[in-house]
Amino acid sequence: MELTELGKYTRSFGLSFVITSFFSALFVIFKETHEDTVMVWMKSATSHHWITHGLINLVVFVVLGWALSRPNNGDGVNISTNALSMCIAASLVISGILIAGFYLL
């Protein structure tokens, strides 16, 4: 098996994806429990709350990815390929469980 080195942007935006996945799941729960305030604001901002949610997620993803690529004199974060893959998989599963658990309970 050939080992490949991940670039700083792959590592940084991979971790940004992990964090944004958790953020998005928690944001779904937050907005659904604050329909009279947050949901109304989100609907008025872009005509539908899911559009606003997606735009906020996009901003969080890009800003975090860029910020995480800057530490250590521009080398980005240091994480192995396997660790990043496991973090991404775990974030997807946990985020899915959070959202499903919220709607099912």
Q: Can you tell me about this structure?
A:
There is one protein chain. The chain is mainly alpha-helical and 105 residues long. It has one domain (8-104). Helices cover 82% and strands 0% of the residues. It is built from five helices and no strands. It has helices at 8-33, 35-46, 49-68, 71-74, 81-104. Helix 1 packs across helix 2 (35-46) and helix 2 crosses helix 3. The radius of gyration is 16 Å and the shape is flat. The mean pLDDT is 92.
Write down the overall mean pLDDT: 92
Order of helices and strands: HHHHH
Query: Quaternary arrangement of the chains shown?
Result: single chain
Gross geometry? flat
Please give the share of residues in helix.
over 70%
Query: Would you count the extended β strands for me?
Result: 0
Short description:
This protein is mainly alpha-helical and 105 residues long. The protein is built from five helices and no strands.
Which descriptors apply to this entry?
105 residues, mainly alpha, 5 helices, 82% helix, 0% strand, flat
List the helices and strands and how they pair.
Layout: H1 8-33, H2 35-46, H3 49-68, H4 71-74, H5 81-104
